[in-house]
Design goal:
single chain, about 500 residues, Rossmann fold, five-stranded mixed beta sheet, 19 helices
Length: about 500
C-alpha cells in the first residue's frame, strides 16, 4: 500500500519521502515503483521524461528524520491501533503544527487513532484501495475532531494523485467496507440457511444482477482471514447492529483454516491456482400441459409470460387456475408458502419464479413447503426450454438476488440517513472500489425503491429478523416515489 501511494503521489507532481524502518525495504519499494513506471512508458501511458521526473521526486529512508518541512504524512503501517498511535505520537513531535497526519487504515476508528495526539484536529483518514495505481477511489475520512480544512485539503490532494476522492465521516468500515458487507454477509447467511450452495448463489448474482464476481468467489480471492475479522470488527464497532451480524459459515471456515485461494480450498477448490468448476445441477422433468400465471404481481406475470413465449404449453387466462394446471407465482420479498396462502392456491402444484431481475441469462425458481417435486421439475423444464439455465433454490423470503440487493441498498440508505456520505458518493464508491455493476442507489431506482421496501418488509414479516428492518431514508423516498439519490433538505 505504501509504495502504491508513493507512486501516485509522485506521478501527481509531489515530492515523496518513502520511509520503512526495516533497512533496505524503502529502497526496494522505490526500485519497484521505478519498474512500474517503466511499464507505463512501455504501454505508452507516460513519457520517459515524465517517468524520470517522478522517480527523482521519491526519496527512500529507513528512519523518520528530516520530516520538518512535510505538508502531509500518510501512515500505512500494520492494522493495529497501538502501533498506529505510537507512530502518530512520534510524528507529531517531528512535523510542523500545520502538517496533516493521515492514516490509510481500512477499519480502525480515526477518532481512536487520534485520541493520544495533542492536536487531533489535523488527523484524518486517507484510505486507498489495493492495488493503489489501478484502484481510483480514495476515502477521505473526518474524525470527530478533524478540522474542516484538513478534509478539504485531502480531497484536493487525492484529485492531484489522479484518484476520485469521496468524503466520509468516521464510522466502522467507513463507506466501502460497510457497503461490501451487504454483498458478502447476506450471501453467507443464505448459505447458513441452506437456501442454495455457494456456486449457485454466485451464478445467480452474476447472471441476474451483473456482478463480475459472485460473493463466494470474492471471499475466496480476498481470503476469509481478511474478510471475516473485518466483518466481526464492524459488527462490534457498530454496537452489534443486526444488519452486520456475522455468518456462522464464515466463522467456522476461518477457524478451520479454509480461507480461499491462499489455502487452495475455500468455498471452492483450487488446482494450479485455478478454481475447480462446480457442475451445475439440473432437474429432469416433463413440460407441463397447462400453466397458470398469477396476476398478483402484474410485472412479474408479464416477465414469466415473455420467458415462456414460444413454448408448446397452454397458458390459462382465467382469474383462477384449473384443477391440474402448474401454478407460477412471482413474489417480492415473501416466500412461496406465504404467496400460496395469500392467493389461496394449491401448494402441491405452485412454484415461485424470480422476476424482479433480468431473466435472459438465468431463471430462478423455488418451491413452497408443499410443492410436489414433479411439479417443481416441470416448472424448471418449462423455464429452461429456450436453453436458459435454471437455478432451483430452497424456499426463502426474497429469493437470493432480492435479499442480497435489498441488504446492500438498506445499508447504503443507513449511511445516507446518518449523513456519513452524500448519496452521490455512496452510489459511485462501490462501482470504483468493488466493481459493482452499478451504484446501489442506481440499481434500487432501476428495480424501484418501492420494490426494495417491499422486499425488506416482506422478509421482516416472514423471518421476524431485525436485520431486515427498512431504514427511514429508504422508507420515505419509496413512499414518496422519489429516487434514493434524492438529497435530504438541510436543517438550519
Amino acid at each position: 500500500m505504501g509504495r502504491g501511494i508513493a507512486q501516485v503521489a509522485a506521478q501527481g507532481g509531489m515530492d515523496v519521502v518513502l520511509i520503512d524502518t526495516k533497512p533496505g525495504v524503502a529502497e526496494e519499494a522505490r526500485d519497484f515503483i521505478e519498474n512500474m513506471l517503466a511499464r507505463l512508458v512501455e504501454k505508452g501511458k507516460m513519457t520517459v521524461s515524465e517517468k524520470e521526473a517522478a522517480v527523482v521526486r521519491i526519496q527512500a529512508r529507513s528512519d523518520m528524520s528530516g520530516l520538518e518541512d512535510a505538508d502531509l504524512v500518510i501512515e500505512a503501517v500494520v492494522e493495529k491501533l497501538e502501533v498506529k498511535r505510537s507512530v502518530f505520537a512520534t510524528l507529531e513531535a517531528m512535523v510542523r503544527p500545520d502538517c496533516i497526519l493521515a492514516s490509510n487504515t481500512s477499519s480502525l476508528s480515526i477518532a481512536a487513532i487520534a485520541a493520544k495526539v495533542e492536536d487531533a484536529s489535523r488527523v484524518a483518514g486517507f484510505h486507498f484501495f489495493n492495488p493503489v495505481p489501478l484502484m481510483r477511489l480514495v476515502e477521505v475520512i473526518d474524525g470527530i475532531r478533524t478540522a474542516p480544512w484538513v478534509g478539504a485539503t485531502l480531497m484536493a490532494v487525492g484529485k492531484r494523485m489522479g484518484r476520485i476522492p469521496v468524503h466520509v465521516k468516521d464510522a466502522p468500515g467507513f463507506l466501502v467496507n460497510q457497503i461490501g458487507r451487504g454483498y458478502t454477509i447476506e450471501s453467507a447467511h443464505l448459505l447458513d440457511e441452506g437456501i442454495a450452495g455457494a456456486a449457485n448463489i454466485d451464478r445467480i448474482m452474476r447472471d441476474l444482477v451483473g456482478f463480475r464476481m459472485g460473493p463466494f468467489e470474492l471471499m475466496d480471492l480476498t481470503g476469509l482471514d481478511v474478510t471475516h475479522p473485518a466483518t466481526v470488527l464492524i459488527f462490534e464497532q457498530m454496537m452489534y447492529e443486526p444488519r452486520f451480524r456475522p455468518s456462522l459459515a464464515m466463522d467456522q471456515r476461518t477457524l478451520a483454516g479454509i480461507l480461499g485461494r491462499k489455502t487452495k480450498t475455500g468455498f471452492y477448490s483450487y488446482e494450479d491456482g485455478k478454481q475447480v468448476a462446480v457442475p451445475e445441477g439440473k432437474l429432469s422433468g416433463e413440460m407441463p400441459a397447462t400453466v397458470w400465471v398469477s396476476a398478483a404481481n402484474e410485472a412479474g406475470r408479464t416477465a414469466i409470460l415473455n420467458a415462456i413465449q414460444g413454448c408448446s404449453v397452454t397458458v390459462e387466462q382465467g382469474a383462477r387456475p384449473s384443477g391440474d394446471a402448474l401454478c407460477l407465482v412471482a413474489p417480492i420479498g415473501i416466500d412461496a408458502t406465504t404467496a400460496v396462502l395469500q392467493e389461496g392456491l394449491d401448494p402441491a402444484r405452485t412454484v415461485a419464479v424470480e422476476t424482479l431481475f433480468a431473466m435472459d441469462k438465468r431463471r430462478v425458481v423455488m418451491p413452497c413447503a408443499g410443492t410436489d417435486p414433479a411439479r417443481l421439475a416441470s416448472a424448471a423444464a418449462l423455464l429452461s426450454a429456450g436453453g436458459v439455465p435454471v437455478s432451483v433454490i430452497r424456499e426463502s423470503a426474497g429469493f437470493v438476488a432480492q435479499r442480497v440487493v435489498a441488504m446492500i441498498v438498506n445499508i447504503c440508505a443507513a449511511i445516507a440517513q446518518n449523513g456519513a456520505a452524500t448519496p452521490e458518493d455512496i452510489d459511485k464508491a462501490p462501482t470504483l472500489a468493488l466493481n459493482y455493476p452499478m451504484g446501489p442507489f442506481t440499481l434500487a431506482d432501476q428495480i424501484g425503491p418501492a420494490n426494495v421496501l417491499r422486499i425488506l418488509e416482506g422478509m421482516q414479516s416472514v423471518l421476524g429478523d431485525p436485520r431486515y428492518r427498512p431504514n427511514p431514508w429508504l422508507v420515505r423516498r419509496a413512499r414518496l416515489g422519489l429516487s434514493l439519490k434524492s438529497p435530504e433538505p438541510m436543517a438550519v
